[in-house]
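To the wet lab folks,

You asked to see what we're planning to order before we commit. Fair enough. Below is the target structure as C-alpha cells, and below that is the sequence we designed to fit it. If anything looks off to you, flag it before the synthesis order goes out.
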C-alpha cells in the first residue's frame, strides 16, 4: 500500500550542488523545507521497512527544470523531514532502495510550487 504526501513548498534550491549561496542561506532554506515536510507528513500513515520514493516537483513560475542529480539534492531536507516525522524509518540505502524524481513545469500545472512524494514499500 503506497502513501502519498503533499509538501506545500518548492525544493531547497540553494543546496543544489550548482548553487553558490552563503552557508547561512543554505542552512535556513534547508531547515524550512525540513520543517514543512515534517508537519506535512505527521498525519500520514507510516511505512516500515524498505521503500521506494517517487518524488514529483511542481516547479514555480519562471523556474527551469534542474538536472536529475541537482533535483535529487534539493530534496534531501524533505527526506530528512519524512524520517523525523516517522513516515519512513530512515534514509539509508537499506531503507530507501530507489529514488525517482520527476519535474512538472509551471505551464503544465499553473499552481503554486509543491513537492509530492509517494512512498511505496518494497
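Sequence we intend to order:
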Amino acid at each position: 500500500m503506497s502513501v502519498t504526501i503533499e509538501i506545500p513548498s518548492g525544493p531547497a534550491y540553494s543546496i543544489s550542488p550548482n548553487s553558490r549561496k552563503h552557508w547561512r542561506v543554505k542552512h535556513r532554506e534547508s531547515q524550512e523545507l525540513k520543517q514543512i515536510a515534517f508537519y506535512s507528513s505527521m498525519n500520514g500513515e507510516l511505512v516500515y521497512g524498505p521503500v521506494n520514493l517517487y518524488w514529483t516537483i511542481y516547479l514555480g513560475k519562471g523556474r527551469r527544470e534542474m538536472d536529475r542529480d541537482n533535483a535529487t539534492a534539493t530534496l534531501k531536507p524533505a527526506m530528512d523531514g519524512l524520517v523525523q516525522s516517522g513516515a519512513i524509518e530512515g534514509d539509508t540505502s537499506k531503507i530507501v532502495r530507489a529514488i525517482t524524481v520527476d519535474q512538472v513545469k509551471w505551464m503544465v500545472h499553473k499552481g503554486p510550487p509543491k513537492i509530492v512524494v509517494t512512498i511505496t514499500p518494497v
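Structural context that might help your review: The CA atoms of residues 55 and 117 lie 4 Å apart. The mean pLDDT is 93.

Thanks,
Computational group
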